[in-house]
Each structure stands twice: as C-alpha cells, then as structure tokens.
Amino acid sequence: MCSIAGILFKHDKHPDLGMTTGKLLTEILDATSHRGPDSCGWGLYREVQEKQIRLRFFLSEGEKAKDDISTIKQLLLTYDATIISEKVEGESYALILHYEGNVKKLVSGLGQKVALVSVGNSLDIIKDVGLPYEVSKNYSITDFDGHHGLGHTRLATESGVHPDTSHPFWAPGFSDICAVHNGQITNYWIMRRRLTRQGMEFQTENDTELIAVYLAYKMSLGSTLEDALKTSLEDLDGTFSYLVATKDSIGYAKDKLAAKPMIKYEDEDMIAISSEEVGLNRIFPGKAIDTTEPAPLTYGIWSRVGPGNASLSA
Description:
The protein is α+β, with helices and mostly antiparallel strands. It has one domain: 4-Layer Sandwich (Glutamine Phosphoribosylpyrophosphate, subunit 1, domain 1), CATH 3.60.20.10. 27% of the residues lie in helices and 32% in strands. The protein contains eight helices and 17 strands. A seven-stranded antiparallel β-sheet has the order 7-2-8-1-14-13-15, with helices on one face. Strands 9-10-11-12-16-17 form a six-stranded antiparallel β-sheet. A four-stranded antiparallel β-sheet has the order 4-5-3-6, with helices on one face. α1 runs antiparallel to α8 (277-283) and α5 runs parallel beside α6. It starts with a strand and ends with a strand.
C-alpha cells in the first residue's frame, strides 16, 4: 500500500483553513501514513519567475556532500547558468538559477553525473526516508503556501527504502510535470522501451516515473493533459490510482478495477484528494464534508483558471 494526496486552490485567494498548503498536505499524509511508513514526499508548485528554474539534487552523506555541491557548481558553469540562490535542506541541495538555455539538454547532461531530484520553472520535489511530520520539519514544508501540490507516503515492495525511490517522480527534461501513484504498472518494461525509442529519458526503474514520462511525452506531441490521461487508461496496464500535477492543474486517473482507493472533496474554492477519508477529515476537523470516490476507468482534471472553473472528467 501507499497513500496519495493532492490540494489545488482554484482562485488566487485561498479559503481560510487555518493551515498553509504545505501543512494541509502534510496532515493528509500523516493521517494516512499507516499505508506507507517507509518514506514520503511532496511536489510543491511555487511562483514562476521569468528566465528562472528550480533545481534540487540529492546529496551524499557527511563530508561527501561538499564534494557533490562543488561538482554541481562546476557543471552549471558549463551551461551558462547563474546561481541566484542556494540552500542545503535535509539531504538535498536546492538552487534557483537564471537560465535561458534548453532545459532538456541541461537535465540530460546533469543527470549523467549528479543525482537530480527535480527541475522546473515552478516545481520543487522534496522527498526523503521517514514519516511526514519528521521529514516536513527537516525541509520546512509547512512554510509553503502555494496554490497546489501533491504528496505521497510509500510502503516499499519492489525496491529498497531510499530517498530516490520515494515519490513524487517527474519527467526528466520536462519542467513542472510530476506524479504520485498507488498501485503497479504491470506493462512497465514494454512501455519504457517504447518511450525510450521515442527519445524519452528515465532516471529510475520506478513505475511512477513511467507515468510522468508517458504523460509528458503525450503532451509534447500536442495532447492536452486531459487527452493524455484518457489514453493512459488504454496504454497502461495494472491496478492504479494516480495523481499528476502541472504548473496550473491537477489530474487523476483510475484503472478499470479501481482496487486502489482515491477519495475527493471539492467545492467552489478547492479540490482535496486523499487515499482515505481520514486524510480529508484531518484538514476539516469536526466538520461533516461531502466526499466522493471516482468511478473505475475514469480520469479528470482541475485547473487554476479563475472564478467559475470546474472539474473535467469522463
């Protein structure tokens, strides 16, 4: 088992829930951490700044971390990238760069020599081994109060417990697309070979990364996120419930068996998603809320498009 979480505020003014967006996601994850106590992560969407990108790297333990940072800085010089800000958080190194070059080329070059967590104009992925409250404190997650984000807790079943096997995963070379997932993609290797032949890159052998890469590939060909979600139900085999986020949207898809739960609450201001109702109850304490579970073989998106927006589903 694993747990997934998502929050999106539809309008610029957030409803007053008494918690930041990062705190809301962390509370959902903590309430459902019995589903995945090994590791956790967040995909946070911060404000976009023109000609700037965010990068986050995994660091080695102890003194070797300094060598990693030195290597990263030397590599960035070869790409005419200027560091605007930098900080070490937990086991990672976060940077904001002024960069006007090809992001896919930058990611491909860096990924061969250092351990990338994510790259994006707004996306910042933070993930580590441990429980949500513990990891959240190490990375100041509750300071984040952006318009949307994803979260995940993981129960390791097919690979070890490490920061790089934690969720979320992104699509290398494609800014601002990330995914979290509960389930298993059983045609992983078939789909990976197909996507690799089309020039797509992978950093891991995790099937959640495949989802992000698949959706990024479809969108790179001109598909909308909604179209890509729809075709994923035809192309991906297995039992799964997944969430994907872009710089202004959150989407979901559920396979035909719907064995992996996903509960949602929606009103005119927000959409909140959890693997279990207890996660949503945590962010609306003492309130009776109207929740629903998406039907089998469905998909949908929620976007930040101003007043009057609505979910799109089929």
